[in-house]
Write a structure and sequence with these properties.
single chain, about 375 residues, alpha+beta, HSP40/DNAj peptide-binding domain, 4-stranded mixed β-sheet, 3-stranded mixed β-sheet, 7 helices, 13 strands, binds zinc ion
Length: about 375
Amino acid sequence: MNKNPYEVLGVARDASDADIKKAYHKLVMKYHPDKNPDDKTAEEKFKEVNNAFDILKDPQKRAAYDRFGDAAFAAGNGASAGTGGFGGNPFGGGFDFGGAGMGGAGMEDILREAMRGFGFGGFGGDAGGFGGGRTAARAGRDLLDEVAIDLRDAYFGKTHTVRFSSNVECEKCHGNGTDDGKPAPTCPKCGGTGTIHARQGFFAVETPCPECHGLGHKIDKKCSACDGTGAVHKQRTLEVKIPAGVTDGARLRLRGQGEAGQSGAPAGDFYLDIHVRPDPVFARHGDDLIMQSDIPFTTLALGGEIDVETIDKKQLSVRVPAGTQVGEKLRVRGHGMPRARGGFGDLYIDITMRVPTKLSEKQKKILTEFAETKSDKKGWF
Ligand SMILES: [Zn+2]
Ligand SMILES: [Zn+2]
């Protein structure tokens, strides 16, 4: 679990954005891996500081932390940080993308939409960055793609490969945009806020700092690889692990896998919308599956067993009680879809029956004799 971000940065609960940013810059310089080679403690601290800043610099995340504490950022909690729109979907929480090399799976999807605020309110909104839009250090955009999979894939789960190009953090400068790769020093003119107070007639107005162009920090010598933006455009491949039991309409989220932010601002998230195609054999109702099965009327009348192939291709022998009616459903426990919280739904066999159309002479004779055992013609029931 994450540590209290206020404690990590050593700031008060009501610290201003500028104070938080200042504290962050100080600590991130102190624990930067370049300054502490092979120091595991420093590395850990560096991560903690970045995690803490990631929460506190974003007004929405900060508010979520203030209200819910760490629970707001727990994996699997789709309601984290006010993203909304994930209600009731157990797969909405952040899924890790798999590092397993399954490349060349032959599924090449072009990224159709690269939009921020796609009805799911990306963190920070368009203002992005620090201080509620005061600065120009923009957070990376969220990316959204979609994929259609078969019901069987939904049963087993699968790895989906997405290829696209987007801005990623510049490796040379670690996203800082500086020639030496270290965080840029705080702008002396605005003290890191990115804005200055100017006077226009009687009014004091806030304008973007002309010295740092609203970034809050000033790069003396720009990184040559990214021209100081901290991000470069790159061809990317993501291996998205689609979990077993995923439902149609689920949206998977890969934190920080969207576009890189500008000048050290956080990356956006990558979202994958899942569509599950209808299956020709199995209809899905929640975690349960329903299949139709033609059963000989003699088996329905006398009782017996039928062979059934489940969605995972297991052969089952299912007992049919004597006197089973068309339209009744036989339940086979545990052969439905995987449940998000473990276990499986059930398989229902929807009983159908077809009247035989080609009867041999012998069969006709037997059926005729059978019919004659009944004196009236009103039926058997
Ligand atoms: Zn760079
Ligand atoms: Zn400035």
